[in-house]
Amino acid sequence: MALKEVNFLMNETLSELLKALGLSEEPFGIFYTDIEPTEGFAPTVGQPLSLELERQGKIDFQEVFKSFTCVLGKLWLARRKNTTAYFEAGRYGCPGGSFYLVSVR
User: Fold this and answer.
1) Are 1 and 49 part of one and the same domain?
2) Does the chain have fewer CB atoms within 10 Å around its N or its C terminus?
3) Reduced to 3 states, what is the DSSP secondary structure of residue 15?
4) Considering its fold, how many domains does the chain have in total?
5) Which of these ranges, 29-33, 52-56, 63-67, 99-103, has the smallest mean pLDDT?
6) Domain check: are 91 and 45 in the same one?
7) How many Å apart are CA 67 and CA 74, to the nearest integer?
8) Residue 21 DSSP label
9) What's the pLDDT at 40?
10) In percent, how much of the chain has pLDDT > 70?
């Protein structure tokens, strides 16, 4: 089977799956890796956050919000541009992103 035919069948199968699920767009997934993507969207580096630092009162939230970026905004942008959104301990975007995307393993 030629590559063109394979691509057509994959797109046709995907279209049928999306229709059966009642979705108008492809779903996206999240996975953890130690390898930074070569392209995509990531928040700017922010002040380190942790539950321990918060409990000790060592977090300057004014500084944290200087680099604030909405995690969902980065996901939306990556989806629209058909690329990757990525996050890591220093690039968490928002306090919720720090605790739920980076801290949870």
Assistant:
1) no
2) C
3) helix
4) 2
5) 99-103
6) yes
7) 13
8) H
9) 92
10) 87
